[in-house]
Amino acid sequence: MQELITANVERHHENILQVLKSYYQLTKPRIILLLLITTAAGMWLGAKGEVAPLLLLVTLTGGAFAAGSANAINCIYDSDIDYIMERTRWRPIPSGRVKRSHAIIFASTLAIASFTLLTVFANLLAALLAMSGIVFYVAIYTHWLKRHSVQNIVIGGAAGAIPPLVGWAAVTGDLSWAAWVLFAIVFVWTPPHFWALAIMIRDEYKEVGVPMLPVIKGDEETARQIWIYSLLMVPVTFLLVYPLHASGVVYAVAATWLGVIFLRKAWDLLQQPSDRDVARSLFKYS
Fold this sequence. Notes:
- The chain is an all-alpha fold.
- Helix content is 76%, strand content 0%.
- The longest helix has 25 residues, at 53-77.
- The chain is flat, with a radius of gyration of 20 Å.
């Protein structure tokens, strides 16, 4: 307990680089990278491989700002449980490196910058989609679902599935069926990915009262649900090939190869649902 108390004492940075590092960590950059990959995929498919470099740069920057804003607000809201969990105890707010009030200003600035960039250099639809992602992630997932519903990841996954819509809208100005298939792929990918993590750190989620599926239903049911969503995800990826014809043979071969590996790892977890190493293997691969 003393260690926790000490960790929450306000700390002062020694130089500007440490300040920048703390605010950079507040945005959860590894999560942002995944979101930007799906944004770029949406742009590439929407523009049929011909994306203007400036538009690509601006859209990815605006998307990064939007995701960083949402993640920073999530860190503000969750700082009480981050303070308790081993995995998150040393994040900028619970560790005392960034004040909550400063984090709010930072998150708001990122959101405004994102909306401005996307509106000016892309279009209003892309900007509104990015803002809807922030609102959904903060209001629906972080504030409501995460601490109150065992389906938190399933429904909340919609927020993480918005970036490919932003990318598609940025280059086309609208949303076609192919864009919604990209949304669906990320949506059904989300539960297996995060439930594998939840199996790994089930006890930490239980300690802070977050009703993740392994905490409420156990590892066996979680592994079964991961297997079901994995089986659903693979055929969804092929909708881009047929009937939409938005992708070709190279995508089909890659999707098949990656999907088979995904299914194998999900199957391994189904056979050994409480094996943390097997869950970790699926989490890292996905």
